[in-house]
Design a protein that fits this description.
Blueprint (H helix, E strand, L loop, with lengths): L5 H6 L2 H16 L3 H16 L4
Helix pairs in contact: 2-3
Length: 52
């Protein structure tokens, strides 16, 4: 069974993608348009960079 190390937990693509998605949803709920689009842009850049 493979152990999950701290480094793998930080570099796993699920963690930052989930955090950015939650940020986008929270910003949309708070009507923070600029922050919402910034987090959506970060998700797009993250996925296009080949990290996912």
């Amino acid at each position: 069974m493979q152990q999950l190390t701290a480094r793998r937990g930080l570099t796993d693509p699920f963690v930052p993608a989930a955090a950015l998605a939650l940020l986008a949803v929270a910003a949309a709920a708070l009507d923070a348009t600029v922050l919402c689009w910034a987090s959506v842009g970060a998700l797009a850049g993250f996925s296009l960079s080949g990290s996912v």
